[in-house]
Every structure is written in C-alpha cells, then in structure tokens.
C-alpha cells in the first residue's frame, strides 16, 4: 500500500500550504515504518501458547494495514514541539512512539467492534475479511477489549517498582528504553481515555446509532463527528504535543485548533469518498452511508459544498499552525498530513 | 442487598483468622456506601442530552448492585499501607476511591460483554435483565467500551494543563479534590491495564472460550482463572497498595501474595456456588457451568475437595498478611474480605 500524495480519485486540489512534496514523502515513509515496527514490537509478539488465539486476532486487526493517520499525527505533533536531541528528546520520542501505537490500537479496536453484526455488520475492512468473519464474534469482541487495555498499558512504563512483572505476558519490559516522566504518562492516559470514552469516540458512535434512518441538522451532524472521529484525531495531536512536559499553553491551544479542524475535515472527506469512490479503492464497502440511510455531509450539503467545506477546514488547520508560534519548518509534517487528509483517495 | 457475613447457603466455616465481626461489618457498610456514592458521582451524572442513551446503559450496568469486592479490596489495601491523616492520607484516599471506582467499572463492563449473545448469551444479571436485553446489543457493546475508557479516565486528573477541558462531557473536573501524584496515577493505569488486558482478564476469557466442551488439567484451569478473575482481584489489591508512593517492596510482595490466593479462592467458591446454589440466590443463572460443559474446580476435584482447597487458599492469604510486616489492626478489612470471599452465599 502506498500513501504518497498521489493523484487522488477525486482531486480536491486544496494546496493552501503545500509542503515540499519530496520532503514530506520521505518523512511519511520513514514514520509509517516506525509505527509498523512499534506495533509489531508491542502487540504481544511472544505471547504464551494459550493466548495465541486471542493475540492472533489482535495482530490481524492492527498489523499490516491502515493509513496510520492517528499515529502519524502523534509523531508530527511531537516533532513540532521538540526538536532537541539528548535525554529530553529521547524521552519525548519514546512517549510519542508509545502514544502513536496506542492511538492506532484504539482506532483498530473501534473498527473491530464497529464491524460486528450487532453494529455495522460489515465483512470487508482494509481489503480483508473483518475480524469477526475471520475469527468469530466472541473472539472479535474480546480482541477489541484487549486492544483497548493494551493501548493504556503501552502509555505507562515500569518505574523500578517491586511489582513482580517478569512473568507478565503482556508488553515486554524494555529496561533500555528511555523513561517517560510519570506526569507525561498520566497525561497521555487521560487524553486517550477522554478521546475514546463516553464524551469521545464511544459517545459519537452511540449518537450515530441513535440516528440511523433519522434526519440530522448540520450542527447535530458536526457534533456527532467531533466525537466519533474528531475526538481521537484531535486527541492524537494533543498527545503528541504533551509528549514533552511544559509546552506553552498557547502552543497547545493552537495545536488543539489544528486537530479540531483536521478531524472534521477528515470526516467530510470520508463522507465524500463513501459517496463517490468504489469498494476496491476504499478497501471497505462503499456507498454504505446511503444504503444505511445515514445522514452525512454529502446528504446534508451536497458533494460540491462538502468539498468546499473540507478546503475551508484545511485552511483553518494551517492557519492555526501559522499562529502557533512554532517555527514553520517544524510544522512541515503537520502541514503535509493536513494536505494528505484532504487529498486522500481512500 | 445485605453483604454482612451472614449465614451462607452452604457454609464453608473457614474461620482461620476471624476478624471482629461487628467492626468489619461496620467497615463494610461504610465502604460499600463510599463506593456507590463515588460511582454515582463518576459515571457521568450530567451527560448532555445526546449522550443520555449511552450513559443510561452504563449507569444501569454499574450502579446499584454487585458485591463491590474489587473496589473494597482497593480500599482495604490502601488502608493497610497508610493510616496517616493529612495531605498524604488525603491524596492516597483520593487515589483509592478513584481506583475502586475504576476496577468496578472494568468488572461491570466485562460482565456486559460476557453476557452478550456471542459470548455467554445470558439474560439475567444481579437479578435484572442483562444490558443487551434491556438496551439492545449495539448499545451494550458501546456501553462496555465506554466504561473501559472511563475507568482509565478516573485514574488520572487534570494537572493545571492548558487543555481546554471545561466543555468535556465526561468526568467533571473537581478542582477541590486532592491531587494524586502523577507517579501514582501512571502506576494505577499500568496495573489496571495489565489486569484487564491480554495477559489478564481478557486473556483469561479467551482461554475459557477456547475450552468450552474440552477437558482441562487442574493446572490449565488454575492458569485460566488466574487471568480471568484472579488478575483483576489481585490487581485491585495492588492498586490499593500503590495509592501511596514508596511502599516497601516486601509489603507489596506480601499483598500480591494475599491477592493471588484470594483471587483463586474466589473462583473456587464461584464454581462451588454455581454447582450448589439456585439462580434466585445467585442473582444470575445457576448451573451454567455444567450446562455449558465447562471445566470447573467442582468438575475437576469434586465439591468437598474444592471446599477444602478454598480454605487452604484463605489460610495462605491470611498468612501472607501476617508475614507482611503490616500491623495486624490495619489488615482488619483485608482479613474480613478474605473471610467474606470464602463464606459468601452468592
């Protein structure tokens, strides 16, 4: 799977701030690889025999696929706030790769549960059979639950405690890894919990569920998406920004605004793609929204107005970065990701 | 519902260390009330209108019922390691009530998912219709997911960050509450994640699933239960012990041993009750294990040997407390809870 800023299926040509394509493309390739490698290291590669069944379903759900947009946002935001080498930089990088893996685990678990028969009842995801089709519903349910817990485990590290941890079959304790300050660990856990809980992703999914076959105002639609997909996207940006303690409040606020606009833009483009692309390109069933009679930005405002709205949101995201006080070159990846979100073809 | 050490249905008379019954009974009543009040405060009492549907299912699942054994273990262990008043005591108490609520949320979510048609397909829990019967499967799934996230949110607190949190619809920010040190917050998150993830509760459930209709050695059975129920029970004890930073390693190790033995004892008694009590007493369907052809301590060793094994485990738990170096009077509640686990009738 390539994720370069290639000719999209339906180009939105929103080149408001066009980062150097080659530079961003290199960044993207390197950081996708870092995320994949981290997930392979973290998602229980040496599980004991009696946990293999569960772990296989988890690995199937999270490894080897996906845009990794959430993880990339963590890494890009972390790099925007800290460029230093040395212990400070190493600790922030360790926090960021753990956070990137954690948000990908949360996203992947939400897809596993969302695809189940009692929810969207979907059979195709990332071009493969969905987890419950492959492993059965009970195992899909448990794998999702376990992935959520593992996400929070990743965000924390042993702190030389007396806890007998050596026989623990979860994430291996890597004593050589830099230690993330506990205040950062705790904050990352809080941000992830808020982004994925009742006032975040799970809440948005519940609102979605309540409105199948019903009409929604654009305000209600926006609120639903701010929770359902926006919270974790914005949360990913904030988690990246909080990988270092002591970042200035106005920087955090600017990055929050970037994350908010980008999260909404992502959903608007998602709705456009669902209405205009085919299943093979998307790697999941296209046209689901209309078939399920779900309100979307396309059904509410039409395709053209939705495209324009997405471009506006990208401009808003980029303006937030420009006003953040962060050096422009450190925001290269954040600009590139905003561009990618708008111009993606799946 | 009374939870005093009343005449059990099938008395196990294991009075190895019998705490003062009246003193423990008072402690129990007070602390059950504290947990109920905390859960009412934490489980999103002021959710916005569009989240009411989800939040009602969460509240239905966790409020007003249950033995609260896990929450009580947190509070009892915290009190065993710190008796001081003052800021240190207040912070440890705040950590403990949050941890007690968090473990109850995790336990409750696991029951919601476990009762679903694709898992145990049960319709009765705590004497009421199960969550999916009452609210539908999709909402039950989401409510469980949201409860897990909320558990981790409870374990963390705002730390005067610039994060715009005031519009957050989750746990209200209580600026008057004592601040738990970040190192404690991070440790509690780690312990809870480990206890409930692939190498804990979720892993145990997966092993259980793999062995329906198959025979198991006693060793395999024990390993399954150590994960499925033991990990969260032991985790609750450890979380209580870690509510204060700097507790001596040998104290932690002793409490871990207590938690390990108590966790296993709980499961052995569970198997005995499933085989010998009726549904009305249990508040859930009795005789499920045999009907589902599941291996249990009763099917493996018979009722009498299982009773004796439970008593041995209680003795082991009490011996660990005696060797912990903690003053006997501070372990009153832990002794009482071990006694309760063995002599419970549901």
TrEMBL record, chains A, B:
Signal peptide: none annotated. SUPFAM superfamilies: Terpenoid synthases. PROSITE patterns: POLYPRENYL_SYNTHASE_1 (PS00723), POLYPRENYL_SYNTHASE_2 (PS00444). Its cofactor is Mg(2+). InterPro entries: Isoprenoid_synthase_dom_sf (IPR008949), Polyprenyl_synt (IPR000092), Polyprenyl_synt_CS (IPR033749), Prenyl_diphosphate_synthase (IPR053378). Transmembrane segments: none annotated. Keywords: Isoprene biosynthesis, Magnesium, Metal-binding, Transferase. One of its GO terms (cellular component) is cytoplasm. One of its GO terms (biological process) is terpenoid biosynthetic process. GO terms for molecular function: metal ion binding; prenyltransferase activity. Belongs to the FPP/GGPP synthase family. This is Polyprenyl synthetase family protein.
